Each structure stands twice: as C-alpha cells, then as structure tokens.
Amino acid sequence: MLPGGVVSGGGGRGGGRMCLLRWLGLRLWSRRGTLVFALLWFGSWLFLNGLVLVHRSIMSDYCTDDKSKRILQRLCLEFGDGSVTGDMCEDLCVLGLVEYKRCLYYENGKKVIEARWRGKPIILKSKLENFSSYEPLGILDYQDTAEELSPLDVVFYATLEVRNSLGLAEEDEDEEGGGGSNSSLAKLWGKKLKNQDKSFSRAELASLWSLLQQEEYTFLRVLQDLSVHVAKVLGSCGHFYAVEFLSAGHAWDQNIFSLEDVSGLRGQDQGGARGRWTAREMVHRIALSFLDMVWHFDNDFTHKLHLCDIKPENFAIRTDLTVVAIDVDMAFFEPKMRDILDQNCSSDDDCNFFDCSSRCILSKRKCSPRRRNSNLQVICEKIFRPWFSPTLLGAKAGLPLQVELQRAVQECSETDGGVEEKEEDAAGGAAGGGRDVHQRLLNILTRLLQDGGGSSERGGAQEEKDHGALNF
C-alpha cells in the first residue's frame, strides 16, 4: 500500500508542479504578449504619425494654384491695411492688371509664380511665403513716424544690408584694381535711393527691408545696371518682386533651351524668315553669350562673381539669344566665396561646395580659400560638352572646325583653375591657360558662325523700362 501510496502521492505533487509551471508559463506568455502588442501598437503609432508629418511637410511645400492665390490675396490684404507697398501693388490688388497664370514651384519656402502684368508675362518670387516671416527694420521700433527718417538714413541702412547680402565690406569695395567702372556696388544702390526727394513711409521702408533680406533680389536689382546677363527686376509689392519672363533651360532638352519657341518669337520680331536662325547657329550664338557672361562676371566687378550652381534650369535666354542668369541664390563675390571655402579638411573632397571647389592644404588641414576651378570650366563641363559631343553633331562631327571645338571644350573642362588662379603664377600657368582656352573657344565659335553664313553681330539685351529706385 505504501509504495502505491507513495507513487500516488508523488504523481499528485508532480501534477501540481506541472500545473504551476503551466500557469506561470501562461502568465509569462501573457505578459510577453502584452508587451509585444504594446510595442507593436507604439511602433505603428509612430509610423503613422511619421507618415502624417511627412505628408504635411510635403504638401505644405507642394505647388498648388489655390495656395498661390491665397498667398497673393493675403499680400493684397496687407497692402489694403497699409502694411506693405510697391510699384505693382495697385495693379495687383486694385486695378486687376496682374493676372495669375500658374504656380511654377515651391522650394525650401521660396515661392515662384507665373503671371501677366499689363499683358506681359512675368515671374513673381519671394524667398519666404509670409511678409511677417522677414526681420523688421529695427530702427522703426524707435521712431514715432517713419517720416523722421531722412533719405540719407535710408541710404545708410540699405547700403549696410546690401553689403551684408553681397558679402562685401567697405574696404573690399574700395580696393584699387578691382575691375570696371563701378568701384562700389553698394554706392551704386545708394545713388538710386538718393534720387527720392520725399521721406519714406513706414510701409515703404518695411517692404524695402523685406526685399533686401532676399539675396537673389539684391543681386539682380544691383547687377542689372551693370550686366545684361542677369534677369531684370520689373517691380515689386511687399516681399514679392517681379522679374522678366524668359525661356529657361531644361536638363532633358538636348539643346538645353527651347530653340523653336525662341526662333518663332524672333521671327515675329524681325519680320518673318529674315529673323530666323538654324538650330546650330542658335547654339553657337548662345555659346558665345555664355563666354561673354563668364568674361563679365570675372572682370567687370570689384570682385569676381562665382557661380556655384551651374545647371540648365538656372539660365535662360532672351529672344536675341543673350544668356541670362535667372537663379543666383548660389552666386558669391570673391570675399564671401573665400569665407565659404575656408573650412577644415582631410582631403580635397572636403573642399567642394556644389560647383565651386578648392584644394585641401594637408599641412594646415584647411581648405584653400581660393577657388580651384572656374565658372568657365564648369560651363564647359556641364553645358558645352553635351552640346558639342560627336553624338549630337552627327555627320558634322568630323569637320575640322568641329573637331577643333570638341578638343577646346575638352581642354576647357579639364583645365584646373582657369581664370580664377593667381595672376602671378610663375609658369604663366593656370591663369594664362584659362584665358587662352577662353580665347580659343571664342575664335572657333565665331569662325563657325561665319562659315555657317551667320552674322557675327552680337545683339545686346532688350531694353526694359527701369522702375524707380524706391519703387523697389
């Protein structure tokens, strides 16, 4: 009996232990399952919220007609209550002479809209969507009325802001040997402001200040008086400014620009077929205008102007085929360019700033503040090489002048430094090489035009009626 009882009792205790273990297992599984479920729920919540945030951020900067119209309506409300002003505000908000066409693009807060002003196509731009997003002019906080500010006060503050925007100090602008007749870009701006005899309203000062905080506006507004190769500023209202509508480049177009459209417009302007060019003649003329633009940007200002984002979309052409820089957010004068390049480094790869690059001085672990490549070199690489490649030229690729042009373009795209290197280079080196290849390209393209029956005349930019200095 006892052994049987012992066996029976042991089985009972063993069964109890099994039940206990099973119960504990269920509890542990239940807790683990709850934990896993909670983690899955939390992860799903994070994922869905992340999608919502991404969607909102994308959609908030998504270009739509409804949003663009609301932005312009808000601008008109601000004009109506006297907060902003400008020489196109009345036409936009009262007379209905500015006709909205479409939203072109939004990018990092920048708004670009196509419209027609008094029947002519224009582009409206602003770096930020809202007027309130710009820093106010601090001096207005200490003035009871804006009329207490004299024109000279406005010149002083505006000149400081122009210098800051362009990356120029007063001593930089007044250096001798800088280049050209303009010894000071800021002084040029100041002369325009002085032409206004009356005092300025608070709305005028606030609107001017919002415009001066946009580097592209400052560049275009100042440089349009010095070069035909920048887009013309036609007017403004508050923080929005209007520039001329031009045929912009496209990376997907083998000729970069829509030559058929430009040729048709020129034919109308010049009276039919007499004003038409062949596509190849147009490409050669545009290439010559690119060379002219490079030369002006290198030599016509107190400091060289560096283009650090060279791509088809950032250039346009007028009907006379003048190349125009239409997006200069990444354009810098020499002093600012040096500040940008002056960085720590461990190799040359650390010294690249978009299309502007310098060398890493390993002994100092610092990038050279002097740019290594040049505007011409990058244009040869990104614009000329695709244009004049044997693939696009077809049967004409083997002609002597075309072969010479291809070799010159290849040399240009591989010549480090170009016209940006030190003039005192002992070997005559890169500086001379840059000028030489520029001259070679100029000569070859001119000969191609002449051999093709094209006139060698070089048209200037279309004259635009300049708006008043303090009409912004």
Quick synopsis:
The protein has helices spanning 2-60, 65-80, 89-93, 151-166, 170-173, 185-194, 202-212, 215-223, 259-270, 279-299, 334-341, 375-387, 390-393, 400-414, 429-451; strands at 98-107, 110-117, 120-126, 233-237, 240-244, 247-248, 305-307, 315-317, 323-325, 331-333, 352-353, 356-357, 360-361, 366-367. The chain has 472 residues and is α+β, with helices and mostly antiparallel strands.
Please tell me about this protein's structure:
The chain has 472 residues and is of the alpha+beta class. 48% of the residues lie in helices and 12% in strands. It is built from 15 helices and 14 strands. A hairpin with a 2-residue loop joins strand 11 and strand 12 (356-357). Helix 4 packs antiparallel against helix 6.
Structural class designation = alpha+beta
Please provide the ordered H/E string of secondary-structure elements: HHHEEEHHHHHEEEHHEEEEHEEEEHHHH
Q: What is the C-alpha radius of gyration, as a whole number of Å?
A: 32 Å
Q: Going across the major beta sheet, what is the strand order? A: 1-2-3-5-4
Q: How many beta strands in the DSSP annotation?
A: 14
Major sheet details:
5 strands, antiparallel
Shape: globular
Question: What is the mean predicted local confidence, pLDDT?
Answer: 79
Distance between the termini: 114 Å
The helix content is 40-55%
Q: Which range does the strand content fall in? A: 5-15%
Q: List segments where confidence is low: pLDDT < 50 over at least 5 consecutive residues.
A: 1-9, 54-60, 175-183, 418-430, 453-471
Number of helices: 15
